[in-house]
Every structure is written in structure tokens, then in C-alpha cells.
Sequence to fold (1214 residues):
Amino acid sequence: MSHSHAKTPTRRHFLKLSAQLAALGLTATGAGLGRSKSLFAAEARSTADLTDYKALVCIYLFGGNDGNNMIVPLETGLHTTYQSLRGNLGLSPSELLSPIADASGNPWAMHYGMSELNPLYESGQMAFVLNVGQLAAPLTRAQYLAGQAAPTNLFSHSDQTVQAQTGLPTPNGSGWGGRLLDCFGTSDSLAAVSVSQPALFLQGFNAGGNVIPPGADLRLSGMNFWPSNQAQSRRQAVNDLLQLDGGNPVRKAANKALADGLQLADTLGSQGGGGELSFPGTNIGNQLREVTRLIKIRSAMGPGRQVFFVSLDGFDLHSSQDWTHWYLLNQLSQSLFAFHNAIGDAGLSQQVTTFTQSEFGRTLQPSGSGSDHAWGSHQIVLGGAVKGGVYGSLPTLALGGPDDANNRGVWIPTLSTSQFGATLGKWFGASAADLAWAFPNLVAFPTNDVGFMLP
Amino acid sequence: MDDRLTLVWDRTWDQIYRVLVLAALVLAVGAPTAAAQTGALTSLTVAGLSPSFSPTQKQYTIPKTSACSVNVTATLANPVHRLYIASGETASGATRSAWVCGSSPTISIVIYANWTEVGRYTITLVTPPPPPPPAPVTYLSALYTANLSPMFTPTTTQYTIPRTSACSVPVSATLTDATHRLYVGGNQIVSGATTNAWVCDGRTKIDVVVYQVWSERARYTITLVDAPMPPNPPTPPTPSPTTPTPPVTPPPVWEPTPEPSAIPSFVNDPLPAAVPVDKFTAERLLSQATFGATHAEMAAVQAKGLELWIAEQLKIPAGGLADGMDNNQVRAQMFLKLANGQDQLRQRMAFALSQTIAVSTNKLVNGYEVIPWVRLLENHVFGNYKTLLREATLSPSMGKFLDLANSVGTGGNAPNENYPRELLQLFGIGLFKLKMDGSYDKTAGQLVPTYSQNTVREFARALSGWTYPTQPNFQPASHNPDYFVGLMEPRPARHDAGSKTLLNGAVLPAGQSVTKDLTDVIDNVFNHPNVAPFVATRLIRSLVTSNPSPAYIERVANVFADNGDGVRGDLKAVLMAILTDADAALPGASDGRLRDPILHVIGLARALGIQIANANQFMYVFATLGQQVLSPTTVFSFYSPLAPLPGDATKFGPEFQIYTPALAVQRANFVYALFNGSFSSSFHLNMAPYTALAANPAALVEHVNQTLLFGRISTELRQLLTSLAQATSDHNQRAFGTLFLTAISSEFMVHTGHSFLPN
Fold:
């Protein structure tokens, strides 16, 4: 990767956090965005002081989730077509939940593994967004087949995962979650947190993703031995050690990283355990329990923004899709339900929005007992600030039809990741200029607000 | 982890007691020995204890499970002693439930006589080795389809059949256990019945899968292979005698596989003269050219100087990697190579290049897919970059990772663009035009793209038509199945032989062979002016500093462009230029770089003289720290080169992308666990030389200075460590604290030119 040595940073306005936050060492860092302007068009982000707290939680479904079976149209004609084209993957009536309706009264049903989520939809706090995916610009089938600019390496997991997380036609090493935080100049240790693995999604130009695995003990080892006053001396020596940098900026940054980590451990430790016992004991359950804890801690400190990365793996269902998809969606549903309740109990349901992402969908036409890589897929958005319903448009269910990139039911997206992200970003509080910066190709699309968030 | 002793004891009484004991010992044996007053157990019962208990055995392991508590029952030899299990006082013979959830749990069983520790047993929880693969159980007693090759045996899982024009292929199979389920081509069938498997619509194989309830128990794959290629080109038609027409020679339908490039060797090169250097220069070089200085290498470099040491390193052959390992074993072996190998410069260079030209075990899931790649890199890192690009392009491992293998450019197929794109973007020239000093070469203030989507398509066409090597005892097919030994093979019938336009307007004429097109592609990329600053920048950033000056980059790029003998792409000359440049050594000229998790841990081991024995014990920790060997998660390798330095966005700090606050603490805790013996069968730190000096804090600190910092400790750090040692009464804690804090100090963790001078 080539880079520039521009030495003229553009100064940014900084957030003034509450005194409590500053005292706990969780202040924002960063001295400006010293990048070539023509590369990133980075202007000084204007940040009025934040007066509220919000969090975005990205649940990334690794492998390519089959949205086609997550939400199924029940309208007779559509449903019959769905059943006939899906063949052995089609969900029978006993494999679908009670019908739900969109704003126009059209009936839909969810996969039977998601029973906890039906009431959430009924309560109006859940939205389905249909046929979202990577696009550089709107694209028809004719244009795609003629070779017009489509995202590169469409069916490659690694490429599409990078594109889904960066939200850019040409990745530049930053993710759209991190860029949304950049819009607010936010980069403290609790701002961008992955509770599973380091994620490109959280890397902004200023904000850097922190990785806090569930149950991780972030207290520094070796600081607790007898007698306690000598252990305290050692801890104090560590603090002093982190001030020694010989004037070298790399050493200074290394010291600050560890110092911030120690500060974070103290903060998290002093807040005590969660009491969030009502989460399922699955991997994703544990992750969302940790997210709940961190949201509660951070929101109690005052205004701010957080973005989380949660992940569930295993959706690359080339075979045995019938029970495996049920198994995965069931885990997702149970833990989302527990999470939604826990956030509601904490009085934060208007301030936390959760959404799914995946690198691509799957072919409508089955391939043996599974399905192959496809493109556009359906996503879930959940939270008290969500305007429930079914958004976007269902692709024409026809193999080789106008929405198919080939002849297996590979949907050309009708909504881009940029539009999806910008809708969330607008709720998050980013201005139109901020969103244009965070999603440079947004201007290519007719709308930058899909409408699934309450105004 | 931590002892949480909360004893309160009378220090004066302890001192008197110690003096009396010591006096008694001296009288008894003439010198104080540890054995005289030893606390022991007569029994120790823990599930899974290994080895079996014996009173003189002090170190044990038990397998780590998901349980958070482990029952420990211990009986004292001397009932007067006190027994503490996991920091809780326990009656002799009673059972204590020890809490073991945490990142690197150990259970400490400590025996006290009065208030003095007289015995200690340590139980470390280790992840048990993976269970041995189950003995092959046969799930099918019969499998039949026409022309099945080889003949069916229950333990063979890979078969081929020739592809015909038929779309249905009858297949029959019989289960050994009638309660299992049988699926052929995705459809369940009755055992013993014949079904038609659909093989059109792009299908390349028929899977025959046996399930027990919903668990897959066996999978037999029948791959359809096209008819083998005729070995001889058809004879050209003779021209008609009445109309003199030139003889028409159709292009050959068979093309020989390219030969692998020669592996460069420098054994016969003359050695330069020795030019002794001081120890600070020696440590600086070793921190950049190896995985960490050892005291032996320090002596060698001081005596020989940079050029001779480097020249000798070039002659050391590649360490190689054994066949037959799975990816976990490959990773562990790789780690040992980096930590203990003699060919340090080669491995450090391979490590650097592997983050530019990256593959990952995330996609290459079997050891046999990755091992050839490791060998390829280490064989060619001192040769020519053009050769490395060629070998990488023809590598089946890379062919699988970036989908070049079986990329078809004929018959209306769109050839695969994955590898061509990365060849340009990540391995060769980058997105925008560069000057030789690494900065953007703008036109009218605008960045100038080096290629467009069209260029990628043209490269994809030019690189189409390669397939995996042919397996032994198989007929070459136009679409070979996965096989990773040797170079990919050309298939003219799948190659887009039209004319292509590459970089800088270069046009490849129509009708070239697959191999000629590839040679021209490599030439075209390699000779693009961007390659010199591009490679120079990546290597300097990996070895020396994340923010090299433009002048440094330009000097190195110039050597890439011409090594002094008119040769472009000479990697050993580039390496020499990087390591001997004044910027690599001058204080302040380069801020340096933060050590990656791998460089940090191995650097500690090498400085401390520890030979890491079995990396399997702790490899999983590196995944948590964001740097699992050979397993980067994205195409940007472990961290993006564009990541800014936290706190100063005018600079780059890629390594900080995996040194976020929580990860920084976890790294420090890993160092703690290594030092306190949590992984003692792999990483054993002998504290005795340090504890022996602990009575004299200044001497202790100086010894740690000489060991870990090679004598360059700063005044401030020395003062800090000395004061801390003085404030710590227990000698073990004194020694441990000094080592631990130095190991996690930025003075150790950050490689800079500046800090290598004493101040």
C-alpha cells in the first residue's frame, strides 16, 4: 500500500467530555487528520458538543447469511414462487412463524428459529431491510451483465467481508463504524469495542477498535502480592514507567495504549459485574452480555457515542442448511431478545440500535442441501428508536429475472451498504456533510435515508 | 496467576526465626541448603494430574476444561506445617475447590512452616492435546459408478470419473450401518439403491455423504475430470498445390509446465572483511534483522560488523518445514523457526514479505496447502523480486488463496480478477503513482491512479488458463483438482489468447502461449517505476521504522532499481541498503516501530537465553493478541499500513492497530504468564541468577539491564527500577518486578535508532 507523507494536519474540533470522563482518563486523543485531502476529502469535522449518548451494535454474521429464509413473503403468488424456486430449502408452513405485516398490509413470516423476535416485530421495534448489499452505484441486471462497475470479487468471503465492513468500493483500511465515530471526534477506550475479534469495521482514522472479549480480565497481572503496600509501589512504578518515553512519539503512543488499558480495567472493575444473568450461555449470548455491561458503564458517564462489533460464525451453508440455519438463527434470536430486554431494563432502548450485517446472501436456488454465495441479502435492525416494518424491495423472485445477477437467484442489491449505514449514521447524529465523508459513494444513490429509524 | 496471600506476620519474629534457622543449617551442613527445611506433601489428588504425584515432583499439569473450579486434596508430610491451596488455608487432607477461570490459570499449593514458605507445588492447566484422529471407521461398504477411479475402498475418500455429455450419472452406495443416512449429490437415498446425480450447471463433483442423525460422519467426493489432453499437437494440414497458401500451424493444444526458478545460493560469494562495531550498533542491527538479539549474536556482530554478519547470514540455507503437519502444527513449527532458527535474517525477511504477499490459513485450511508456500518464501527472499513474483503467481497455494487456479478465460467465462488485482494493488505497484521517495507523484495537485478496473480485467485475461499441478498417477486434466506440490500447469484451451493491454500502454499480441503471457505480465508489473518505492517502503516499515524519511526510501528504492551492477530487483542488495543506511542508526532520524506480539515475545526469549520448546502450549494466545502465525484475518495482513499513530495522526503506526488499550493489557498479562511459569514446559525462565543478586538492588537492575536491554538502559528507568527493588522486601518479588517491568517497558518494546544509545 502506498502512502503519503503529508505534514499539514487539518485541525479538528474536539469534544468536551464531562469532567468525570476526563478524570477517568477516557478522553479523546488524536491531533487531527493529517491525510492528503484529495484522498479522503477530510475537512475539519464540526462537532457541537454532544449532549446525549447513543450506541450502535453491529452483529456480523460470518459466512454469508441466507436472508431469503429469514423473512419470507406470504402473499399467495410470491409465496408459491418462493416455494417452487427454493425447492428443498423452502420453509414449510410449520417452519414459519405467525404472519407479520408491513406498512402496506402485505403478509410476511419469519424463519421458525426466530420465535423470540416475532413479538419484537409486533411491538414495532424491529425492521427488516430487504436486499441490501455492496454497490458502487445503482445497478440493473443489464448493466451488470454488460460489465458496468460492480464491486470486485463479489463471491469471495474475504473480499466481501472487507467491503461490507469498510462500506467503500475501494477499501482504504478504515471501517464505517470507525468512521462514524470519527465524525464526533470520539476515540476513547470504550468508543469502538469488539467483543469477539479485531474488526476492520471499527477502525476509523482516529478511532481505533478495542477488543474486550467476554470475561476477559483486564487487570494487569503481578500487581497483587503480599504485602499490599509493596504491591502498590509496583503498581505506582508501572504508572511511572508509562511516563518514560525519551521524547519518542512511538514510545509515547505505546505508553498511552497500556495506560489507557489500565485505566479501562479500573473503570470496568469499579463498576462491578453485570447482574445480566438472563443471557443464553452461547458464544453470542456472552458477547451481548458483555456489550450490555459496557453500554451501561459508558452511558452512565455522560454524553458520548459507542460502536460495537459482535459476531456469529457458521453461515456459509453449502450443505445441511435446514437444521444448521435453524440452529444459528435460534442463537441469534435468543440472544437478541435477551439483549433487547436488558437494554430496555436499563432504560436505554431509545439509545441503542442493533443491526445485522453479512458479507453476502445466498442463492435462491439450492445447491444440494445448501446454497451458494450470492449478493444482496436481508438485514434486521432492532431498537427502541427503530420504526418497525419491512423496508426496501423484495427482488423479483425469478431465476434469471431482472434482479438476478445470473440465473441462480443472486440478487443485485437495491439498497447499498452506504445507504443502510447512512440511515443509521443519521440517527447516530452525524450531519449530512459527515455522512457524505463517511460514505463517499452515497451521492450516487437516490436516497440516503432508508427510513427505518424514527425521526 | 497472582498469589493472594493475606497473611499478617511479625517481621521481627520472622527475621529472628530466619537467622536461627540459617544458623542451624550452617552448623548442620556447613552451608545453607534449601533441602534442610522442606515442606512436602504425602499425597495430592486432582483429576487428571500429570505426572502421577510424588513428593519431590513440584510441577504438574492438568487438562483445562470448561469447568471453573477444580477439586484439590492434599495431605501434608509434616502436620505442623500449614497448607495453602490457591491462596486459601486448607486443612491437611481436606478438599479445596480452586477457581481456575482466567487467562492462564495455575493452582499454587504452598506449604508454610510458621510463616515461612518451605514448599510449593504448582499445577498448570493446559489445553489437552487434540484427541488423536479416530481410527478410520468405514461408513460405506460399497460405492459404485461407471469408470470410478481408483477402485472403491472404504478408506479412500477422493475419486474421479471422466466427464461425458450426460447430465445424469447413476451412483449407488451402501451403508455399513443402516441407522445412518446417505446423501448423494445433496439428495437422501436409500442405502443400496441407485440414484442419478446431476452433474451439469457447473457442478464439478458428486458428494456422497454419510450422516449419523445430523452429524456428518464421512464424505466421499467423486470429481468429474475432463478427457485428458492429447500429448501431441495435431499435424498441420498440407497446403493445396494449386493455391500456394502458407502452411497453417494451429497453436499447440499442450504446453509444458514451467520449471521452478532456481533457488539462489550465496555459499560461494566472497566474504567482506570484518569491521568491528560497538554493542549499541550490534543490538540495533539485530533488532532489525532478526527476531531479537541474543548475547551470542551480539558478540558475533560486534566482532564482525554489519556487512560480514549479513553476508554470513545470506549463506545459511533455509530451515525448511516438514511435510505431514496440520495447520496447528505448522503454526507451532513456524514459531519455533522464527524463535530458534539459525537463518534469522532470512526468516525476518520472509516475515516482512509475508505481510505484503499474504496468504492465510483461514482459506488454506490444510497443512499441505500452506507448507509449500512457507518454503517458497524463505527460498526466494534473498533473490530477485521478479522471481518471487513469478513463483508466487505460479504457486498452487496462492492459486487457491486468490482464485487464480482454474481461472478460465475462454468459452464466455469471465477470468478471475482476485489475484490480478492484488498483484497490482498489494504486491506490486499500489493504487497511485509514486515518486522514488515514496510520496505521491501528483499531477496538477491530483493523485494519479496507476490502473483502472479495465486494467485488472486485462491482467485477468492474460493470467487465465492455469490449473493445479497434476497429481501422481493421475491423467492431466484441463481442470485439475486441488494439489499443492510443484507449480501450476498451463492449459491453452482455457487461456484467453487475445491481445491485452497492460500497464503503461504495453500491448501483448494475440496468440501467445499461457506461459509467455505470464512472463510478460510479470515483466510488465516488475518494471513499473512504482515497484521500487513500493517495495522499499514496505520493507523499511517492517524492519526498521514505520515512518521512514523520504530520503531513506529514495536511497533504498534506487538500490532496488539498480543494485550497482545494473540489476533491478536484487532483494539482498535492498536488504543490505536498508540495514546499513545511516537512517537506520541515527538517533532521532527514525522514530522506530512497536514490536509486534511475535517480535516482542520472541525478543524476550532470545535476550533471556530461553530456547522455546513447544509453542503449542501458548499459540492460541497469539490469536487473541491479533497475530496468529500464518493466519491474518484480512487481505491487509495483521494490520493496515494506513493505520495512524495514536495521538499523532501525521504519522503512521500500523502495529498499533493490534495494540489497542485492552490488547495492550492482555499482552502485558501474557508476558507475566510466561515469566511466572504458566507455560513452563515451553518457556522456562530461570529466576535464580536474578534472585541471587536481589540483595543488592543496583546490581540486580544492572544485570537486567545487561540481559534484556544489552546495557543501554536509560537513567530514568534505572532509577525507577532501583527504587522499586528497594521498596520490595521479598527477593523473588524484587527480581520478578525488575524483569517484568523492563519487559513491558516502552524502552524494550519499541525499536528505535535513538534509544540504542545510553543516556
